[in-house]
Hints:
There is one protein chain. The chain is of the alpha/beta class. It is 45% helix and 16% strand. It contains 19 helices and 12 strands. A hairpin with a 2-residue loop joins strand 4 and strand 5 (137-138). The chain is globular and about 65 Å long. Mean pLDDT is 83; it is low at 19-25, 28-34 and 204-208.
Amino acid sequence: MRKWLIIASFIIVTSCLGFLYSFKPDNSLAQQDVIKEHVVFWYYSEEMTKEVYRFEKDYPHIKVITRLVKNPEILLEELYAAVSAGNPPDIAEIPSWYGIYPLIEKGTIYPVNDLLDNEYKAELPDAFTKRFQMINELWAIPISYEVPTLFIHEAYLGQIVQNLDTSSALPKIMSENKFPNIKWNINADNNYPWYLIHLKNQNNSIVNNTEVELIEATKYFLFHKNHLALTEFVNGEGGILMSSSSKLQLVEKQVGNKFKWKVAPFPIEETKIIPNGNGLVVFKKEEILRNNTKQFLLYMQKEERLNSFALASSTIPANKQLVESKPFQDNYRYFPDYQRLLITSLAAEGRFMTAEDELEWNKLIESNENRR
């Protein structure tokens, strides 16, 4: 009998302990609560991945759920689809030339004026900031920008380049100056509508008012001959490449010791340069913006983060003081012409965003394609 009483007591005690253990806090649930603090971020610049990693390291209680897509065009398509489905990200990277206007028109993104750090706001370059401004509001947080740039083969380093002070010199260069082993005198990469818009705004003797007239103004103005302009240039097969300041590191790496080359500013008045770049838009998923989202946006406005992203992507940080600083300039000490280009980019007046930006871009592509 005593044996059975001991066994019964053991069973009762074990049951009670099990019952009491059920009230113990579940750590896994607590961890799930932490994971619920997150930010959904879509972007197309690979260099953003490192910035996300650094943010999560500094703010371990916030998880950034990311989606990296191949290019800005694909991201814009996916953002428009996500907005239509009612499931956009919290934050997305956005190109500055076109793409943001439909989001403003539909009322799906917040104006960001009240989300700017005061020190960051004071150092924003005016010309680039205009690309995200409309109706007296700023609709994206500027991160970095680029300006149109010429990359010039050594064969063109003499008298031709010295005379390349205005865009009116371009037809002469394209028609009269030919060099051995070079397929073309001048060509442009895939952003050629951007370069043509600059020439259109220059309003000189070879530039007219409409996109078609601009392409047809001279028989030599077929800037974009193929999609191999950059490849052919770095292989020594091109004369003058119309491209972007952001291609500097790529050109340097790909050319190596094949031939001498230099950087030259775009041949228009420096005040008429229209910077192009990227920013961050914030979607209206909730009536009140979450602190996690605000924290990430403030983090990306820090000078250290702007500097890191700009150096990794070979772009110009959206911070005037940083652009002019000796430490940033020293990163390009072997390219004095590029250093000057960085400084003169701050003198640009730029151009405000308009509803017609995408239409203008596409008209130039269509006009150029029809000339082939």
